Amino acid sequence: MTTAQQRSASQNQADYLREVCQLLWPPPAQCGPGTAQLAAGGPGDSELIVLPGLRRPRLVVPNDRRASSAAIRGYGPPGSARGRIAARILSAALASGVGALVLRDRLQLRVPPDADTIESHLSATLGYQVRISMNLGAARANRKPVLQLLTPAGRTAGFAKIGVNPLTTELIRAEHDALVRLNAAALTRIQVPAILASTQWQGLEVLVLSPLPVWRRRVPLRLGQLAEAMAELTSMSPVTPSPLVTSEYWERLVSRLESADDGRERADLHEALGQLARQAGSSPLRFGGCHGDWTPWNMASTCAGLLVWDWERFTAGTPVGFDALHYWLQARAVADGRDPRQAAAACVEQAPVLLEPFGLPPADARLTALVYLADLAVRYLADRQEQAGARLGAPGGWLIPALRAGVGQR
Fold it and tell me: pLDDT digits over 143-189, tens only?
């Protein structure tokens, strides 16, 4: 990322933090930047620590030793062991009080007794006092406030997602429905959150979920464990064979592409879908349950088991193997920072190996990978990820070229 891009991303984060503050603490409450030297005023006033600072905000935690320390532990940052060690050190520093002395940037909250804020709403909903911490995600169309709910004693009570526009509201409602179904399925290979509350506040959709124990000791995935968990999810409802172009899945995919803005990318995807339809013919693919966004940062392998969250894009009736392909591609194009276009092309090449545990023969595996690339490209295009500033939001730069090349090789 260039220096100019870094400045733009930082400004985006700072602007987003201001927008979220106005949304979650509406008048007569006030939320604004401050410093550690500015003392809170009335009895309803408080402070939030902004990490690493107001210029590049990434995480906002209560200015309270136990709550701030728990906030760092509760987010259970994915990634390298070094990152987890750094989080533990920061958590300990905040618990000791040293961190609050060093980290000077604050959000000052001025909350009159009669103010209706997200904290007062969530406290009333759950029946006990909670404070909140926020993790400010990177720019993308589906970015929304995700709040960690903390008790005064420093216990993580849950997480709340706030729908702020039609797309995020739709996704939150979809996650609610998915979790109702998943919790009823009594899955044995993964743990999913429970629903604590589903409400509306100030015209916004609010979904409150139980915390998963991401702070538990991490353990390496054993050989085949991830594929077994994905296969269990696939089979939670009957797995049905169907020719691709006569499936409900294909109808949904084509319909979603029609909702995207007209342009070169949509035209390229129309052409690629037509080629896929002709090449798939009447040969059946298998369709089943799919997480829809199973990535290394949406799961944790712990001594308490395999924890999986962010079920907003769960669907039934999706080609078997999509989750394995998505995990593999996102790990390389996002987490490892590899060239995304090369990673997308390699995803098709590796499909026979990746999907062998799911019983797909090589030809079906390769077709499934091409359909997956088309699906992801349609998602990014229909969600307008590029316009929202997502780093890989333009499918024409990586997904569509790999898809067109793969279709041409069949």
Answer: 999 999 999 888 999 999 999 999 999 999 999 999 999 999 989 99
CB 325 within 8 A of CB 369: yes
The burial class, CB within 10 Å (0-12 / 13-18 / 19+), for 126 is middle
Domains defined along the chain, listed by start: 3-209 (no CATH), 225-409 (3.90.1200.10)
Q: Which two tokens stand for residue 366?
A: 């390769």
Helix (H) or strand (E) holding 394: none
293 φ/ψ angles, rounded to the nearest 5 degrees = -155, 45
Contact between residue 161 and residue 175 where contact means Cβ atoms under 8 Å apart: yes
Least confident of 78-87, 104-113, 377-386: 78-87
Whole-angstrom Cα Rg for the chain: 22
CB 298 within 8 A of CB 310: yes
Q: What is the pTM of this model?
A: 0.91
What H or E segment, with its residue span, contains residue 17?
helix 3-24
CA atoms within 13 A on the CB side of 5: 7
Residue with tokens 């979603």: 256
